[in-house]
Design a protein that fits this description.
The chain is an alpha+beta fold. Helix content is about 35%, strand content about 15%. The chain binds adenosine-5'-diphosphate and magnesium ion. Adenosine-5'-diphosphate binds next to strand 6, strand 8, strand 9 and strand 13.
Length: about 475
């Protein structure tokens, strides 16, 4: 057997940002996998040099919103390097505005949305529009759990909110009464996991921690189909989509991104998929049956978080007929055999793209229209790269906390005592805790003994803390 030369892989890491992949997700890759870490603040040239020196062909990893524009520049200076996911695919990771522009371009259904960089025009719109509306902060560190998502029932409320919050741009969306929202995760455009997040009775936010429920059963066909369409439009190797399932039964995209909280076994599948694709299909293609999530979802999530490298055999009539061959599912308008759905929802080999679809010269509205009016309102301009701890940065100085202060903050949170604070501080260095709260609070769930409700209380406190600090 002739041995083909494999591309040289590297993990793209950033200081303080939790890692989506590591070597354990790429079990079986025969060559050494490099890693390159971005240190923020004027680190662009050094980063580029290191990638060149290590002769990396493929850089794998998610880029947080605050580094997105810098990495578009880096990618341009490394034309021979394939980024996975590509910067174009990660366009939606940057902001809610970008998700919206992506959906507009591909005619993907979303709630009707208005985006204003011109505050006068925005306020004029508030005068004449119908209510209720949803107002969101488009860009910024963690939007965890809808903390920067507001429902306003009248013009008065909307104006009050914008006077107070000064969100820029003004991002205003029709309020969609919904049954639930559904998260779908895809690999090579194939759904591999999906679950409902239902709002608690009488509430509009589908925030599971506030008493909403989460389940894996009978995700509608229309939702999976929209998720696939969206993944294809983004040309995504891997992808997650939050889809609103309206009271009118219509589906609309709320969020989509390559960065999402995923069980380790899902990240293993992505690794396996990428190894298959990057080895020109000489390594094994993972077979991930449709609706596996309905069965895996029955396992307690604390155990699911520890299960690794789940493998499934392919359907074969002689062996598996007893299970797969007989199991039928109501799906859309028909009843179908489960294994037949695997033909319908294929796993595609996503290849390298050869042109830039979303060049920043055109699409980075945020930096081009950092409005004067905003400056006069004494709101800091959104910087292209906002390192939370960059020295000289006013806001970040305020969140440079000592070990003792962090400890005090942690133990002030309901559900965190001495013991849990110690576990957290052991698991993450104290500087990293703030970064995690800023960028990726969901990653705290990976720490033993930290539940979703603790993370929620933590985020509530954290956001209160930031608001206080910014006054
Ligand atoms: N247009 C909308 N109409 C009704 N509910 C919405 C709307 N947009 C968001 N929501 C609710 O708010 C939640 C958070 O909004 P989302 O856009 O996902 O922001 P984030 O997750 O960043 O906080 C959603 O999961 C959904 O329950
Ligand atoms: Mg969301």
């Amino acid at each position: 057997m002739s041995k083909k030369k494999l591309p040289k892989l590297g993990f793209l890491y950033l200081d303080y940002v939790l890692r989506f992949f590591d070597h354990s997700n790429f079990k079986g890759w025969p060559d050494k996998i490099e890693s390159v870490t971005y240190h923020w603040k004027n680190d662009k040239n050094r980063f580029i040099k290191e990638v060149k020196k290590k002769k990396i062909d493929v850089l794998i990893g998610n880029i947080p919103a605050t580094a997105y524009e810098t990495f578009r520049e880096i990618a341009r200076e490394l034309p021979g390097v394939r980024f996975i996911p590509s910067l174009d695919t990660q366009f939606s990771n940057k902001s809610k505005e970008n998700v919206t522009r992506f959906a507009w371009k591909y005619h993907l259904p979303i709630p009707r949305t208005h985006i204003f960089y011109d505050r006068d025009k925005g306020y004029k719109f508030l005068e004449k529009t119908k209510y209720p509306k949803i107002i969101k902060r488009s860009y910024g560190p963690s939007n965890y759990g809808g903390y920067f998502v507001h429902k306003v029932d009248s013009k008065k409320e909307a104006v009050k909110l914008f006077n107070k919050k000064k969100y820029h741009p003004m991002y205003i969306q029709d309020f969609i009464p919904m049954q639930a929202d559904i998260r779908v995760m895809l690999i090579g455009h194939k759904p591999v996991c999906a679950f409902w997040r239902r709002p608690p009775k009488g509430e509009w936010l589908t925030n599971t921690s506030q008493g909403g429920s989460m389940d894996y059963q009978n995700v509608p066909k229309s939702v999976l189909d929209l998720a696939v369409k969206t993944s294809k439009a983004a040309k995504a190797e891997y992808w997650a989509c939050d889809i609103a399932y309206g009271k009118d039964s219509k589906v609309r995209i709320l969020e989509c991104a390559t960065a999402f909280a995923a069980f380790p076994y899902v990240r293993d599948w992505i690794g396996e998929y990428l190894m298959w694709s990057l080895s020109d299909k000489t390594l094994r293609k993972p077979h991930i049956p449709m609706f596996n999530w309905e069965e895996l979802g029955k396992i307690d999530s604390s155990l699911l978080r520890t299960i690794r490298h789940i493998n499934f055999g392919k359907y074969s009539p002689s062996f598996d007929g007893a299970y797969f061959g007989k199991k039928k599912k109501t799906f859309g308008k028909e009843k179908v055999y489960l294994h037949k759905l695997d033909k319908k929802y294929q796993m595609f080999d996503v290849r390298k793209k050869l042109f830039e679809e979303w060049p920043s010269e055109t699409w980075n509205f945020q930096d081009r229209f950092a409005l004067k009016s905003i400056k006069s309102m004494k709101v800091k301009n959104l910087k292209r790269e906002k390192t939370p701890f960059a020295s000289g940065d006013e806001a970040s100085k305020k969140i440079q906390l000592t070990h003792k202060e962090i400890h005090k903050f942690l133990t002030s949170v309901k559900g965190i005592g001495e013991k849990k604070a110690k576990v957290i501080l052991n698991d993450l260095k104290h500087s990293k805790i703030v970064q995690t709260l800023q960028f990726e609070p969901e990653a705290l769930l990976e720490i033993k003994g930290i539940s979703k409700s603790i993370v929620d209380s933590l985020m509530k406190k954290w956001n209160e803390f930031l608001e206080k600090g910014n006054k």
